[in-house]
């Protein structure tokens, strides 16, 4: 037992030094752990590898739905109904059809990157194909109107049902 007492002062000094180093490193790391790392807003990016339609609508809160702000419930119901009816014929024709709830998004077309921000009318359709200028339709469209707009923009035949 006496041999432990002989080395204690040296061990105590080592332990104190380690504690100081640990505390110093913890204090240096503290700002990194307290404050979240800001990576900026997440970028919603649509990659264009072929004919693509992005159906966009605004994000809505539960309170917007509950109060039916600006008749948004009926507009979104119609939007979703016609979108689902147009989905299969578009996909069968080789057109990528996706929907998003966002007021803006990025489009990556090869090396070209485009930014889209919806205007006051926040529901619509963004038509794009590699190397082509995008075409935007605002407002709720019926499935037949979506298919007609796709035929006109992409210059391909699309059967309806």
Sum up the structure in keywords:
alpha/beta, 161 residues, 4 helices, 45% helix, 3-stranded mixed β-sheet
Largest sheet: 4 strands, mixed
CATH topology of the domain at 45-154: Glutaredoxin
How much of the residues is beta strand, in percent?
15-25%
**CATH architecture heading of the domain at 45-154:** 3-Layer(aba) Sandwich
The coarse silhouette is: globular
Average pLDDT figure: 79
Radius of gyration: 29 Å
| Topology as a string of helices (H) and strands (E) | HEEHHEEEEEH
Number of helices: 4
Distance from N terminus to C terminus (CA atoms, Å) equals 91 Å
The strand line-up of the biggest sheet is: 3-2-6-7
Task: Describe what this molecule looks like in 3D.
The strands form 2 sheets. The protein has a 4-stranded mixed β-sheet with strand order 3-2-6-7, with helices on one face. Strands 1-4-5 form a 3-stranded mixed β-sheet, with no helix packed on it. By secondary structure, the chain is of the alpha/beta class. The longest helix is centred in the N-terminal third of the chain and has 33 residues, at 2-34. The protein is globular and about 40 Å long. Helices cover 45% and strands 22% of the residues. Helix 3 crosses helix 4 (143-154). The termini are far apart.
């Amino acid at each position: 037992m006496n041999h432990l007492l002989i080395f204690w002062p040296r061990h105590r000094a080592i332990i104190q030094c380690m504690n100081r180093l640990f505390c110093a490193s913890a204090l240096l790391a503290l700002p990194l752990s307290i404050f979240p790392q800001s990576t900026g807003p997440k970028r919603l990016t649509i990659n264009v590898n072929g004919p693509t339609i992005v159906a966009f609508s605004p994000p809505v809160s539960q309170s917007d739905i509950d109060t039916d702000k600006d008749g948004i419930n009926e507009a979104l119901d119609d939007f979703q109904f016609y979108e689902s009816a147009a989905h299969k014929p578009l996909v069968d024709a080789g057109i990528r059809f996706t929907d998003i709830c966002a007021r803006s998004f990025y489009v990556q077309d090869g090396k070209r990157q485009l930014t889209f921000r919806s205007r006051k009318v926040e529901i619509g359709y963004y038509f794009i194909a590699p190397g082509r200028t995008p075409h935007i339709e605002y407002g709720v469209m019926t499935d037949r109107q979506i298919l007609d707009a796709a035929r006109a923009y992409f210059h391909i035949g699309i059967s309806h049902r």
